[in-house]
Write a structure and sequence with these properties.
alpha+beta; single chain
Length: 196
């Protein structure tokens, strides 16, 4: 019945999938980033903010990237339950590519209609929190990432964010360093938002 239905976003679906897989003993994590494989024809060739999962395949010894929520709306021809490298825009790669001039920030959008570097920054911090097993609601982010503050970031702060993004490109190898940042750099933690 309609009164028993919920309207959920990709964030909630990924958390549910991670919970189901973890309850069955399968290591799983939530990842935030951008999906260029949705049909966003009104905006042109863009990459929309999106949350997905990765589960650990013990036999193949690798993280398998899956998109359960978006599997029904793919415009590309690939398996959404084993997404090939390069099909999903992980924010660490996207942030560093934009900073290096290898990609356009205007290609990245969120569901609220905002685009550009600030959206990548939001996704970068969401993904950082996901890697620390702290999947947060969209309305929360570090004060450093609020749109009005983003314009005021110093080159030193941008380099700190670049360093975080570099580590996030290989989160397994760099986990202890990421965990140290998580535990010691409070400005990268979610301290502001609608419920805080």
């Amino acid at each position: 019945k309609e009164e028993n239905k919920l309207v959920l976003t990709c964030r909630y679906v990924t958390i549910l999938i991670a919970s189901i897989l973890k309850s069955k003993g399968i290591p799983c994590r939530v990842r935030a980033g951008h999906a260029p494989y949705f049909d966003m024809w009104k905006l042109g060739h863009v990459s929309a903010d999106h949350w997905i999962n990765q589960y650990w395949n013990k036999k193949e010894k690798r993280w398998v990237t899956i998109d359960v929520d978006g599997s029904w709306s793919l415009k590309d021809d690939f398996d959404p339950y084993d997404i090939p490298n390069g099909k999903f825009d992980f924010p660490a790669d996207a942030w560093l590519n934009v900073r290096a001039g290898k990609d356009k920030a205007s290609r990245f959008y969120n569901a609220g209609g905002t685009g550009g570097k600030v959206v990548l920054l939001w996704s970068l911090f969401y993904d950082f929190h996901c890697l620390m097993n702290n999947e947060v609601p969209y309305i929360h982010m570090p004060e450093i990432a609020f749109e009005k503050n983003f314009q005021k970031l110093t080159e030193t702060e941008l380099k700190e964010i670049d360093h975080l993004a570099n580590l996030m490109q290989n989160p397994d190898k760099n986990y202890h360093e990421l965990e140290t940042i998580w535990n010691t750099n409070k400005k990268f933690r979610l301290l502001k938002g609608g419920l805080l």
